[in-house]
Fold this protein.
Amino acid sequence: MNPKVKRLLAISVSSSLLLSGCFGGKKEEKTKTSETETKTNQTVVINGAGATFPYPVYVNWAKEYHKATGIKVNYQGIGSGGGIRQVTERTVDFGGSDKMLSPQELDKRKLYQFPAVIGSIVVVYNLPGVGDAQLKLSNKSVCDLFMGKIKYWDNPEIKNDNPNIKLPHMRVTVVHRAEGSGTTWNFTYWLSAICPAWKEKVGYGKVVNWLTGIGAKGNAGVTSYVKQTPGAIGYVEYAYKLQNNLTAAQLQSKDGNFVKPTEENFKAAASHAKWSINSHFYLEGNLLLQPGSNSWPLTAATMILLPREKKERNKLVIDFFDWSFKNGDSIATNLGYVPLPENLKQKIRTYWKEVVLK
């Protein structure tokens, strides 16, 4: 037989077998395929976007949640400003923000709000020969550094608080966030509280007019710039410091003591918070400058924002965070965050039941 004809016959036979399977010849295969297609079509995807501050913990919670439930949670770290905007525009199921929204602003945007995890902001530096938590920076020194008043690291103002450290005659490079950022909101709010000159000339917000320095996108961007620039100073969420082996300064507590950025000191600050369901967990200054001799002054809770009219989608988001509250504490701790206290988790569950899903 002609080889070409032989090939055509083989194709014809294969096609016949395939068609017979599709039209009843292979009922078991048909059922199996249908079940797979149905399962694929029913895959649930939850989309969120916002703060880069909690990005590492949300991504790891989502990974484990997917393993446990098959439900996929996508979270994009685009900054708190972007998260607030996208959830307001209803382009995502939930927004992430390190800037807490007041009850009035939540009403305006028709949003709900609750805390998800507690973290901290640290002042990181790149100084050859100066180790982690060795450098002490007073409130005045931090203010003068970020305002561009201190131009070299061996400035007498810094040397006075660090007599045992050999500070290099190296130019200071300030690195700050370039986009709308809840981390910036918290950091500049703190600077405004401890430094009258900063409050007068710069103020606080998700975006401010920096007097000096270079901008970088996200906590990851600031981390990268500081790490590769000798003499740099910046501010990042503690998890980024931890994961990238950056060095961070001791800062002054509200009581004036120099304290190190440690889990114990983050928890000390968080323990003083006065949470209320009636205000959607809003705290005017977040957890910044809480009282206590060892309370870390730059401790902050990061928030989840939900649209008020989307009850079914909100239930999916709530299920994810409830699972994370029950199963994700060790993940949060390993990444350098502080899990919410159990009494606060119960208060949030009450909020979900009596406010969000009512």
